[in-house]
Amino acid sequence: MSLLPLIIGLYVAAALFALAMLAQLGAARVRWRARRRLGAGHRLLWALVFLLTALLAATLATALHGYRRLTGEALVARVEARALAPQRYIVTLDLPDGSQQAFEIAGDDWQLDARVIKWQPRAVLLGAPPLYRLERLAGRWNSVEQARSNPPDVHALDEPGLLDPWRLQQRLPASLALIDAAFGSSAWLPLVDGGHYVVTLAAAGGLVARPADPVTAQALRDAGWPTP
137 and 155 in contact (C-beta within 8 Å)? Predict the structure, then answer.
């Protein structure tokens, strides 16, 4: 269940209670000028109640928004596999920027590797975006013997740009004090013909791979992969 409607509702409620507080303050001012001290005090009391309620609603909304950011996942890639022959596939990557890359790989599984910058929780709450750099797409063999005799197909995916947060973190650690860790992360799943997968980056972790549709999930279960 998405928390977004509840968060928006709480912010709206906070705004309405704030408006109600202002209305009570205006009414208290009118009564004070009319020398109706008791009525003015009554309105001020209600203004305080509305203020506290608005603050409570805004605090709850902010806390839920922070929790949503900490538990949220950013899309890294959509993966599609098409069989060419036994243990040989065309794997297509659709990236969030709209670009698409296709590679031929051999193996039982596909594996995506990336370098990841993990922010400290307070940086995530402040809105720091997930940082990663895709590095490789490779095939993977289930059999160790087959892996020893057949080197995997490995394809480079990206080259560092002018502003590489990985290198910047190494050279200027003091200027990026909100960085918690810099590490490599991999995600892999079995290759099935016509399979569709999605890879995401968790704010508090690394890459996560899942089947993108029920057909792929069933194909993975049929292949003996424990898919929810």
Answer: yes
Q: The whole model's pTM is what?
A: 0.65
Structure tokens at 63: 């806390």
- Beta carbons of 85 and 105 less than 8 angstroms apart: no
DSSP 173: G
Q: Which residues pair with 131 in a beta bridge?
A: 117
pLDDT tens by residue, 18-62:
998 999 888 888 888 887 878 888 888 998 998 998 888 887 776
Residues 197 and 212 sit within 8 Å (Cβ to Cβ): yes
Contact (Cβ atoms closer than 8 angstroms) between residue 70 and residue 63: no
Half-sphere exposure of 118 (CA within 13 A, CB side): 15
Residue boundaries of the structural domains of the chain: 4-70, 73-222
